[in-house]
Write a structure and sequence with these properties.
Layout: E1 3-9, H1 25-29, H2 37-53, E2 58-61, H3 71-75, H4 83-90, E3 101-104, E4 114-118, H5 125-128, H6 131-141, E5 148-150, E6 166-170, E7 177-183, H7 196-205, E8 213-217, H8 220-224, E9 234-237, E10 240-244, H9 251-261, E11 266-270, H10 277-283, E12 289-292, E13 298-303, H11 310-321, E14 326-332, H12 335-338, E15 348-353, H13 366-379, H14 392-409
Helix pairs in contact: 2-13, 13-14
Length: about 425
Amino acid sequence: MLTEINFDGIVGPSHNYAGLSLGNLAATAHSGDVSYPRAAALQGLAKMRHNLALGLPQGFFVPLPRPNPNYLARLGADAHTERALTAAAWSASSMWTANAATVSPAPDTLDGRCHLTPANLVTMPHRAQEWPDTARQLALAFADSAHFALHEPVPSSFGDEGAANHMRLCEEHGGPGVEVFVYGRPGGPFPARQHEQASRAVARLHGLDPARTVFIEQNPAAIAAGAFHNDVVAVANGRVLFTHAEAFADQAQAHDAIRAAFPQLEVVEVPSSAVTLAEAVRTYLFNAQLVTLPEGEMALIVPSECTESPAVSSWLDAMLAGNGPIRRVLPVDVRQSMANGGGPACLRLRVVADPATVDPRFLLDEVHADRLEQLIARAWPEQIDPVDLGRDTLAQSVVTARQALLDVLELEELG
């Protein structure tokens, strides 16, 4: 039976605050701060367990090999002198699996298989190195070629940042849906990371019906305000589009275009007078997991920062007091991720599939969760100061911790 599975990235043992991501205001604001990889990974695992307890299927991906043994060598760089390149080689940004790939469920595609295209992530050098190792995991987790099709990334001429700029609307997850691709245009103070041609290429590769595929321009003002991906200002689930009033370049036209393909659309729009664009970005109100619970109720899983903002919490209270489609708001603590610019939605990749067709080593249950928690508490570094990146003793502890994780999960192929 087809169901939505959220695959979260386990936060890697090299999690640090090097401030590498231009346009990501949280990451640049915390550049140089001491990070806490153990706490970060345990927070991410706690979010996964929280969703499991709600009755939601949950999967995971493991951290990529870090420090990347080939990155500096290919650049002819020295870890002790090229500090920015060294930080890139240590980046744990693969934890944000919303950027791992774009996923089109089987009911939407021409051949009736779930299609996945790894994101090339070429706009940011520290992320552009990710896709080969990400593709290896995707190929393992979704190896059943009768049910899944894995593509090469879009050529690097066109930046593609994956599911963070992709939404799907449907009557039910296992039924046909309408896929919405959101792209940016260059020219603002920060890079527009998702290119229109990359989105159109993914739609063609996945065999999507043009009548059920929508392309929308992101608001340049949103990108300039720090919404470097669409999922910082809009998220969709089922019939519902939950969006800030300044999410798209032409908000009314965007709604009309989606409604033309999906007449059942329900828009929950937060006006700027209630929550400014700046406050939406600061709290990551829209970088939430909008999910349908087993009993049919729709819930919004938000970062705890939302409950600490008077404007955001007031708006959420008013929403719940009404008769709208979102009936529950559930805060989670992912502060270590948030300080690097990633909320609950950044940490997960949605895949609609029959769990029986997925490699079970990538599916979470309480037994797996207990083992992961014990390992992380024992093996992950407690803290990392960015000045320590490149030191041999820290590198060895990070490599050893990841290998121990692979051993526990019996994923030796990824070693």
